[in-house]
Amino acid sequence: MPLHPLIGHLAARNRLSSALRRGKLPQVLLLTGPAGVGKQRLALWLAQLAVCEQKIEEPCGACRACRLVGGLSYPDVHWFAPIPRPKASDPDKLVEEAAQSIARVMDERRAEPLYPGTDGMATHSLASVRLLQRQAALTAVEGGPRVFILGEADRLIAQESSQEAANALLKLLEEPPAGSLFVLTTVEARRLLPTIRSRAVPIRLGRLPDAEVAAFLKAHLRPALSSRELDQRVALADGSIGSALRAGNQAGQAQQAAQQWLEAVLAGAGPSFERALKQTPWAARGEFTAMLDALAETLGEAARGSVGQPVRRPVPKALLRHRQPDPLLKAMEHVADAREAAWGNVNPQILLAVLGEELAEVL
Fold first, then answer.
1. Does the N terminus or the C terminus of the chain have fewer Cβ atoms within 10 A?
2. Please, are residues 187 and 34 in contact by the beta-carbon 8 Å criterion?
3. What's the confidence (pLDDT) of residue 51?
C-alpha cells in the first residue's frame, strides 16, 4: 500500500525544493518539530523529489522512482527506524539482525501506512549505525542520489561501546559521501548530541492547522468517526496527525496516567512517593516515557489556560488556579529533563520520585 500524501508544511517544502533544484541543498538536514506532524513523511517527500524523473517543484508521484519511494522499495532510499536492540554476540551478525529488524518494520509500514508509534524500548543501536555506514559506502543502485533517513534520531544510543555508535555517525555526517543526503528527525534538537547537531542544518516544522488534520482523518481513518468524535479528536491532536491517530489507544492511557500522577503530586509527598514506588523499575522507556510526554502536554494545556486560552483536554483542577504560566513552564522544564534522563541507565522509580519533589516545589 503506498504512502498517504504529505499534509502541510508548504513553506518548508518550497525551501527544500528550491535548494535542491539550485544544487544548494545541504547534505545533512535535521527536521525538528512536535511529534506526529509529519517529519519523517517530509523526509520521504524530499527523497521522492530528489529521485523524481520529472525534475519539477514537487514529486510527480507517477514516475517509476516516485512510485518505488512511495512503496518504500526504492533501492537508494534507506529509512532507518528505531528497533529493539539486536541480541547476537558476533558484530557481523548484529548488523544482519538489525537489517532484518528494519526490513520487518518497513514491511509493516507498507502494509499499514498509518503505522502506530514506535515502541518505547526501540533504539538506534551501534548495529544500526554500522548498517548505515555499510550502506553509505556502497554505490548507488540507480546511479542517482542516495537518501538516508534516520527517524527519531534522539534514540541513538550514544553511551554504549565508549560512544562508538555516536562517533561512527559523527564521522559519516562530517564527511558524507558524494551524492548522498542524510535527513535526521527528532522532536527536540537538544535531545541529540551537540556534535551531531553542529553537522546538520536545522529545519523546524510547526503544528498543522486543525482543518488539515480534520481533512486527513476524514479521508484516511477507518472506520470513519462521527462529526462529534472527529471534532474531539482534532481538538486533542493539537495540530498533530500522529496524535490524532493515536488518541484512541495508548495515548489516551498515557494521558490518564499522567493526570493521576499529577493529582498524586498535588495531594502531597505521601501519595506522590507511593505512586513512584508503583512504577516498575525496568520500564524506563515504553509506557513510562509515554506518560512523561503526556505529562508535558497536560502542563502545557494548563499553561494555555493560565493566559486565558481555552483548555482542550482534561487538566487537574488545582493546576487551573494558576493565573501566570511561569510555574507551569518551569514544571515542563523539569519534565523535559526527566524525559531526557529516561533514555539513560536511570531507575524510573527514583526518577519519578525526584520529579515529584521538583514539581511539588513549583506547583
1. N
2. yes
3. 97
